[in-house]
Amino acid sequence: MKSITTYKQRVFGLDVVRAIAILLILCSHSTILLFPESSSTIVKTIQFFGTIGVDIFFVLSGFLIGTILIRHIQNQQTSLKQFISFWIRRWLRTLPNYYLVLIVNIGLLYVFNSEIPKQLYKFFFFLQNFSSQQPDFFTESWSLTIEEFAYIIGPVILLALGLFFKKLNKWSFLIMTCLVIVCITIHRFIFDVHLTKIPEHLSWSKILRKVVIYRIDSIYYGFLGAFFAFYFTKSWKQLKWLSFGFGAFLFVIIHLNIFSNQLNPDHFSTFFNIYYLPLVSISILLTFPVFSNWKKHVLLTPLITKISLWSYSIYLINYSIVLLTIRQFIDVDQVSLIAKFSILVLYWILTFAFSYLLFTFFEYPLIKFRNSINNKYLY
């Protein structure tokens, strides 16, 4: 279960998915940098696809981590010690980058004499958006908290199931996955019943879409994909284009209905609170049979792999560190269109340059360290 970090070991199609997700997010943030107050349809559409980029990451993460947990079950590596080893491997992959960038963001608060957010300590324990809106600081971290809790909850439930069933199997994994999805869906239903109208000073995205206890199921739709890809491999491959077509159709129909009827969470709260986010996750998941079976492309593989490898660093760096720092020094709203283009180029260059440095000199050495740990300490 070593990390996949070389061209030969990686699944090219899933690297494509990861690259698409991070590029959608960068494009969305580019519009926030240049046109933060714009109501243009084009700008809003680009920003919308940035939110979809995060949903893609959720489903992809669930698909990959779900596959790892399935292999644990297949190899009968389901003791507490072995799941602790699973968590350690996850944390060695995700936490160092997170804490480094968090500390840099705190440093920037002092450099720019900005207000220190209340309960800053919560960011160190991934509690900043656990059950309520996250403070306006290190805003991209909201999705990382959802992923971290998702990775903890799954194995805990499997351990609990193991107390009732002496041996875990594929159905234990499916029960665990469905249990999480059902519980979170019920939780959103309760949210909808108790909050029939969103207060004017709050946004649906901040009070529901970016809150851990309402979004963990997004990861577990990826778990469902891992289940079917692993145990029903033949059908997963044979029906890939039918699945892709249905997923694309579902995605388009949902959003055509939203845009053509001008639906929004203020007036159609039940649809957005309960159904919209799961439907998006399902539509994304349905495209995975095609992507997971996509063979390497001679010309594109090196570029796609690099973007995929750097994607975590890019996600952490691009907004709070690069974009907001640029806006500290340049009043982008007051410059000419040509100057804005130059600022945009600067934003992309700095993002990729810093991400390359972070990955090469910090993230990748830690990945190698993790992979060098003798298996006897992990299992």
TrEMBL record:
GO terms for molecular function: acyltransferase activity. Residues 13-359 form the Acyltransferase domain. Keywords: Acyltransferase, Membrane, Transferase, Transmembrane, Transmembrane helix. InterPro entries: Acyl_transf_3_dom, Acyltransferase_3. It holds the Pfam family Acyl_transf_3. The chain crosses the membrane at residues 12-34, 46-70, 91-112, 149-165, 172-191, 211-232, 239-259, 271-291, 312-330, 342-362. This is Acyltransferase. It comes from Olleya sediminilitoris. The lineage of its organism: Bacteria, Pseudomonadati, Bacteroidota, Flavobacteriia, Flavobacteriales.
